[in-house]
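Handoff note, outgoing to incoming analyst
You'll be picking up this chain. Sequence as last confirmed:
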Amino acid sequence: MTFEQAKKRSLLLKEQLEQWNYEYYVNDNPSVSDQEYDRVMQELIAIEQRYSKLIIIDSPTQRVSGQVSKKFNKYVHTIQMLSLGNAFNYDDLIHFDEQIKELTGFPEVEYTCELKIDGLSISLVYDNHLLVMGATRGDGLTGEDVTVNIKQIKSIPLRIDQPTLTVRGEVYLSVEEFNKINEERGENGESEFANPRNAAAGTLRQLDSTIVAKRKLNAFLYYYVNALQDGIQSQYEALQRLEQLKFKTNPEYRYCSNIAAVWAYIQEYEPKRHQLGYEIDGIVIKVNNLNLYNRIGYTAKNPKWAIAYKFPAKVVVTKLLNIFPSVGRTGRITYNAVLDPVRIAGTIVRAATLHNADFIIERDIRIGDNVQVKKAGDIIPEVINCVVACRQKNAQKWYEATHCPECNSLLERVEGEVDQYCINSVCSKKITRGLEHYCSRNAMNIEGISEKIIERLFKLGYLKSFSNLYQLEQYRAEIIEFKNFGEKSFENMIASINNSKNNSLERLLFALGIRHVGQKTAKLLARQFKTIDNLATMNIEQLSIINDIGPIVAASVVDYFAIPDNQQELALLRQRGVKMEYYATNQHLAQKFENYRFVITGVLSKPREYFKELIESYGGQISENVSAKTTYLLAGGYAGNKLVKAQKLNVKIINEEEFQQLLNKGG
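Most recent structure output, in case you need it:
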């Protein structure tokens, strides 16, 4: 292939890939399979490797992550990014409308309403059709240049059919992706993000773009800077123009002829807010006619022609009585608040998480303060801030712990991380928490051995390691004397311990508590290497080339098997009969669902985990999201957005009865 032929071919491939990106990430309606997309991408990469002059800034290949920055440079916005004033009730809206009418002299004012996305504000600058800058809002005047990370958001075009443009919007994380990230972080012993906004903000400011790409950020664009100069007369028209330029706009925006229509829109969307798949915290109301903006004017911080109606927050205020640290199985320190009891969402809350030391210090939270408390996801109580205006003189300034609350070892902080860790390998709490994890349902699934039993066995010296579990029968006489723990309870516990010896390798790998190895990673490693001996011989380079196993996980696995104490413990587990091989639950049927990809949604007759394990035991794969490569959507009652998406993509939808027929017939 000559250079001219390669140039012509690369332009065609770039156009195809950008169109497919737009269909998949903006329209949510892919027209080609993932395999075809990957084939074309590889062809383009090969051409660019041969003719490096063909690599330009807007090539889809330049989205490929892996770049690590030392720091982010500052970026000065040419036009200040203002924040919005707030309205909290109907009266506030009426007052806002009356002010607009007074300033414009109009008897009625038209508005455009948009959902207020709970994310991180960004500004995108295009020059000569190309994306040349992606910056955070910062203080409104100066933000940070995060262009390399912005390029990992595939709904944002690298090239547009317009020479110059500055457009602004919100980077966000879907609720589904947020839950997935927190689940993985929890499995890996990492601190969980407080909410999708914090996760999105933290991700966009990652120095390693590989992490940004993995977390699947998205963006809604909503503000066309200098729209009037380009002949656009209204906000509604501006949003339509952004759509024509193939930006992703939020589809729920609406033209409202007056403030009464605005209020109707708010009342419609407040109860819908938890059904959207992403978090919103209100409604943005903008005067629709752009020609009125300069007449209406600005304050020092806010435009007068727009306002944000904030939904009532489910936040309560109570007194913070104390702060204490606790240590988890990985040694990570979590800080907890003791609260004056308060009712939140129907339950009495006496304690809440404060996350880590930096969280407390940044907010200057003190013992004795009145604090704002909410339930994260309406489940986990968390302190979100203190009420400084109500601070008493005797409020005690708080200082982070320097030593482990259990073993008094000096705490350490890993460079680049916010968490503190106890690194004492014989810390009693780390050991007992590790044993609890080993016995948990998703690990070795040992029933009949509670947290209290583990702590008592540890104190008596009967249970100091995983391998000790398989020797507990020798303490029968002593254990059956425990309060509320007789002969039958002991027999059931021992039977469950013995049954755990026959678990497949992925359960053992997860149970061992190897840092960064959650359930998904454990299963991937088990399937890839089949035995623990094979895995133990791998080096970082060999592990890193496996899909979804990056250098951090690889280093953690290699480090684990290099520690003599771990080698000895594995030898004792093997000696006591614990199997260390991977096998499918139905070995002779393990390939029945090979290359089949399932998505599960809705309310089913059994826990979702039951169906996941059954599908995987037959060689199938589980995905969280419906796409063109989904083979089946297993749908129960009250199925939501995934069902709608499957119908749009013509994905085969089956119920439990049809799923059972699929098992019986062989797919």
